[in-house]
Amino acid sequence: MIGAHTDSPTLRVKPVSKKQLEGFIQVGVETYGGGLWHTWFDRDLGIAGRVMVKTEEGNFVQKLVKIARPILRIPTLAIHLDRQETFTFNKETQLFPIAGLVAAELNRTGEAPEPTAPDRSDTPNTLSDESFAPLKAPRERHHPYIIELIANEVKVRSSSIVDFELILFDTQPACIGGLNSELIFSARLDNLGMSYCSVTSLINSLNSPSALDNERCIRLISLFDNEEIGSTTAQGADSNLLPSIIRRLSVIGSGSDQTDTAYEQTLATSFLISADMAHSVNPNYAAKYENDHKPAMNKGTVIKINANARYATNSPGIALIQEVARRAKVPLQLFVVRNDSSCGSTIGPMLAASLGTRTLDLGNPQLSMHSIRETGGVYDVGYGVQLFESFFEHFGELEDKIFVD
């Protein structure tokens, strides 16, 4: 199995986001995860997410929306007005994006952008079922033009929009950079980078028509949400999602006398790779890294180790992944944090604890983790795909060769 997560630190539109101040239209946002929020200033931002729409039949359906043009921006304060030695700001009052000017919206519509709130003097008992609204309509809670943009994008009437979950993103596309085109400049490398390697390797491992002819293992990837906020959601790694799937898969092909313990036997013979991006050494902050564990860009996937179990890696797992890498002819690297440094964590330890399955933490090296714009290595993507492909193809054979009393 390979487990990864798909979410990244971001800004999410608040349930009531309509704001305006000093002639500017603003949008209220809340922080998601532990982002480097100063990197979100002065970026061209769009919005994307899920919209709930009421159909003519009275059903409520989900639609995905992405407004890729720059409609929002969080402006910094000019240096002439505040000469800070370090850039600090209040996340509640100074991280609100501007969406335009009140005057421009007035010219567009011919009316003030702040509509008069509807008369709510009637009590619920005097209203019909159709006219009573427990919550204010989205056009009252959010700027009407934003609702119109969303409606146009999903091709519905704005009055059909019931609610949404929208996040902000940098509209600048990913690109290849560096003097020799050896670097990737992109948003959300943590952790779409390892999610991509997981999906691609699973597909590649099945390219041959005979790929599963002698296979006795199930090849599985699990991409979770909400890792950046603790994973304690229905779609997070700390839910029963993966255990319930494994429990159902474990009885496939088992005899009637083995059904009762098939799940436990499956966990005992399984192996999980927790795939989450790792830290490349930063040349400007080299002293922040342990001297003998400084992962380099484009030098291979990084095995992450921590004595305090912030990562789930142990020696039997390293023995396995080394042999997997040897057969794929791809390099590996080792990483531990300094004793005087804090250490991040992954879904690895929590899944290892809940499943009791052998687990190893690894990931491709990157710079600027949790920034709005991150940096990775071009060749590490290929190394990651080849490593995981070899893992899927050879685990069944190698599992029998690793003995632990």
Radius of gyration, CA atoms, in whole angstroms: 25 Å
The percent range for strand residues is 15-25%
Helix and strand succession? EEEEEEHHHEEEHEHHEEEHEHEEEH
Distance between the termini: 23 Å
| Number of alpha- plus pi-helical segments | 9
Outline the low-pLDDT stretches.
Answer: none
Average pLDDT across residues?
93
Task: Briefly note the structural class of the backbone.
Answer: alpha/beta
Report the major sheet: 6 strands, mixed
Question: What is the count of β-strands?
Answer: 17
Strand order of the largest sheet: 10-1-11-15-13-14
Shape, principal axes of CA atoms: globular
- This entry's quaternary arrangement is single chain
Helix content: 10-25%
Describe the structure.
This protein has 405 residues and is α/β, with parallel strands linked by helices. It contains nine helices and 17 strands. Strand 4 (45-54) and strand 5 (60-72) form a beta hairpin. The longest helix is centred in the C-terminal third of the chain and has 21 residues, at 378-398. The relative contact order is 0.16.
Explain briefly what this protein structure is.
The protein has helices at residues 102-109, 138-141, 144-154, 189-204, 241-250, 262-268, 315-328, 347-355, 378-398; strands at 2-5, 10-21, 24-32, 45-54, 60-72, 98-101, 161-170, 175-177, 183-186, 221-224, 271-275, 278-279, 301-304, 332-335, 358-363, 365-367, 374-377. By secondary structure, it is α/β, with parallel strands linked by helices.
